[in-house]
Amino acid sequence: MNTASRGLLALALIAALAALPACKKAQDAAVAAALEKATGAKVDKDGNAVTFKTDKGEMKVVTAEDGGSVPLPAGFPGDVYLPGDHKIASAMDLAGSLMVNLTTPAAMAAVYADADKAMQAGGWKRELAMQADDTSTLAYSKDKRQAFYQLVNADGGGTQLTVRTGNDG
C-alpha cells in the first residue's frame, strides 16, 4: 500500500472509530491499534489528537468534535491569511508542513478574493490562481516558503478551506 493510500485509510479509520460508542480509553486503544496496523507507524491517540511516529518524522492530527474548533498548529505563520470568521475542523503538523481544514460562512468568491489580496499585500508572490464553479485554488511563495489554498463551496453555504504551508523542498 502506498503512503497516500495509507494516509487516507488512517484518516478514514480515525473518523469511523471515533464515532463508535464506547469507553473513551477502549476507543482510544482501538483507534491506535487500527492505525498502527494500517500505517505501520507508531500511533499515540489522546482524545481528539493522533500522533503518528515513523523513522521519517512525526505527524500530528487534531480534529474538532461536534462542529467545534481546534487551535492552529504551533508555529503556523502569522503572515498566512485565514478568514476572520472561521472554525478549524482539523489541524495537522506533517513533519514541518502545516495544514488546517476550516469552514467559514463567507462565500467562496469572497474568501478567494480576500486571500489573494491579503497574501499579495503581505509580500507573497502568487504562483497559481484557478477558479471554477465549486472549487478554487491559490498558491504562493515567499522567502523559500509556500502557501497553498484549496477552496470548496460548503454544503448549506459558506466555504470549506484547506491551507497548507511549509518550506520549499
Features:
3 helices; alpha+beta; 169 residues; Double Stranded RNA Binding Domain; 27% helix; nine-stranded antiparallel β-sheet; globular
Any overview of this molecule?
- With 169 residues, the protein is of the alpha+beta class.
- The chain contains 3 helices and 9 strands.
- It has helices spanning 3-18, 24-39, 108-121, and strands at residues 42-46, 49-54, 57-63, 87-94, 97-104, 125-131, 135-142, 145-153, 159-167.
- A 9-stranded antiparallel beta sheet has the order 1-2-3-4-5-9-8-7-6.
- The model is unreliable at 11-24 (pLDDT under 50).
CATH topology of the largest domain: Double Stranded RNA Binding Domain
| Order of strands across the main sheet | 1-2-3-4-5-9-8-7-6
Count of helical regions? 3
pLDDT < 50 runs, ≥5 residues: 11-24
Quaternary structure type: single chain
Which class of the largest domain in CATH terms?
Alpha Beta
Q: Number of folding domains?
A: 2
Total number of beta strands: 9
> How helical, in percent, are the residues?
25-40%
SSE succession = HHEEEEEHEEEE
Based on CA atoms alone, the radius of gyration comes out at 17 Å
* Beta fraction: 35-45%
Overall SS class = alpha+beta
